[in-house]
């Protein structure tokens, strides 16, 4: 099991406070900068490892950054704290985005990112809770995260805990039937302590979701299953923040976050081939330069 | 058919545990009745999470509860729990090291005439391939109680195969120890390694064989994984032949597990594997099917005597 990096955790605490105290324009800027730094780190990591899921990492990073730097009640130095909020990355193939975010929060040293996907690394191509602090469950096969998050929300209610459970789902992943079993359970039980965020980038591994097995009208589907549905720009940090922190009703919340796969790098954006293509050295250089702008 | 339905002991022990420990919860798939959870539901309505007919959700919900500090007993008919949710068992429970107690109810051919869709003869084979998952098959009500109590405190992923087909009490004073076979009868000529419903039949077979001058050792292999390899090695050394008996497919089940030990020893011994050999059952009651597949006391006795003589 990796251990926390206290210095980075302290920096994370300061940045969280700064973000909380900042005026909206500055808050947006701080979150944007933080997310783009994670994007660059992620691209370097994938370039070095020679594998990873670039497109989905870049589409989900604004969501993860907003959660970890402005929303989740967590302590990177106490990853087992009982009443922490729970975060489950159901789209486990975008582990790279989670690792860079957890490292930026100090759950473990960012030096560890250099080992990503290497022999005996704690940082497998899909996250492992047994080895990586901050990872709540092992995901990878699609359609697993929502049922687990429902179990966590049921547990939170049984314990009368104020903790909230967040789960990020890929949109293509919603083709797995297990999600809809869990969506029924959450709706039926009115699990108001559960928020599912759909990274709606409209691309799956091989093609567009709507050309493969259409998901729309996705909002109506979740509403029909008993959820409150909110639709936001998944790259607008303030909109995400507002959605995550605004008052909740008596039912689970589904946030459909409209995103762009490969977000932030012009030649990767909305391109199906960048699902898990690895950038060349020169592509990496161009990408990082674009992200620094 | 006289004897005991192990689900009764299972439910009684679970309720007793739940009274002692509020972390104990039950999760089921519309199987409140068939998992014998009616009384549990009455006493602990908030602690019974019935997700409806949704096994993947059921196991995932169980994992989420376990990862939040609860001790979930996830109950469903074994064919659906293990077949429908196999990937959840692998990833959410075993690989994630979520301390869930998976309770496969009415396993083997307990659903008799309902047919192969409802039989669970593949469960041991499927689950034995998964790292880090303990597999326990109690032989009678008393062992079921002990196994339930052990599982609640085990803090490790477990599959508990809870029988519906009535069995006599056989384990007597012996106590259940996870990972350890129990020698229910000693013998020198051949060993029968049996599990679940086959244990009482193996004892019956051994008693009958003794009348014919053949001394049969009977091991109750109530833990299938991890297997008590020492007990197998002792049986090889001391009795020279092994018969396995299980209400399951021998492809990957108890027979295969024992054989893997036997053939990797320097001096393997003759073996017979009683069970179902890659075949879907015809229509019939459980008792009929056990007879059809050669799983009666007489069949076990014949196999044991055959091997003992071949070895002599």
UniProtKB/TrEMBL annotation, chain A:
Residues 35-275 form the Transketolase N-terminal domain. Signal peptide: none annotated. The keyword DNA repair does not apply. InterPro entries: THDP-binding (IPR029061), Transketolase_N (IPR005474). Keywords: Thiamine pyrophosphate. Pfam families: Transketolase_N. Its cofactor is thiamine diphosphate. Belongs to the transketolase family. This is Transketolase. It comes from Paractinoplanes globisporus.
From TrEMBL, chain B:
InterPro entries: PDH/Transketolase, THDP-binding, Transketo_C/PFOR_II, Transketolase-like_Pyr-bd, Transketolase_C. Pfam families: Transket_pyr, Transketolase_C. Residues 4-169 form the Transketolase-like pyrimidine-binding domain. This is Transketolase family protein. SUPFAM superfamilies: Thiamin diphosphate-binding fold (THDP-binding), TK C-terminal domain-like. PANTHER family: PYRUVATE DEHYDROGENASE E1 COMPONENT, TRANSKETOLASE-LIKE PYRIMIDINE-BINDING DOMAIN-CONTAINING PROTEIN. Transmembrane segments: none annotated.
